[in-house]
Amino acid sequence: MKISCFLLLVLSLSCFQINSVSGIDSVKCFQKNNTCHTIRCPYFQDEVGTC
After folding, report:
1. What is the full per-residue pLDDT of the chain (51 aa) written as tens digits?
2. First and final CA of the chain: distance in angstroms?
3. Rama region for 36: left / alpha / beta (φ>0; ψ in -120 to 50; rest)
């Protein structure tokens, strides 16, 4: 499951550039809690629970 979350993060880098605040929050979520949360982007939207 951790690999899936990592791939989700990699695929969403362009979204982070569009919405930098969401990207920063997502990175903090990964680093502190080892979890994934909703990533909002015009091209890609997904929600993943605990990695």
Report:
1. 556 767 777 666 655 454 444 444 555 555 544 445 544 444 444 444 444
2. 5
3. beta
> Tokens in use for 50?
């605990």
Q: What is the 3-state secondary structure (H, E, C) of the chain?
A: CHHHHHHHHHHCHHHHHHCHHHHHHHHHHHHHHCECCCECCCCCCECCCEC
- Report field, pTM of the whole predicted structure over 0.85: no
Tokens of 17: 């550039």
User: Total domain count for the chain?
Assistant: 1
- Domain containing residue 21: 1-51
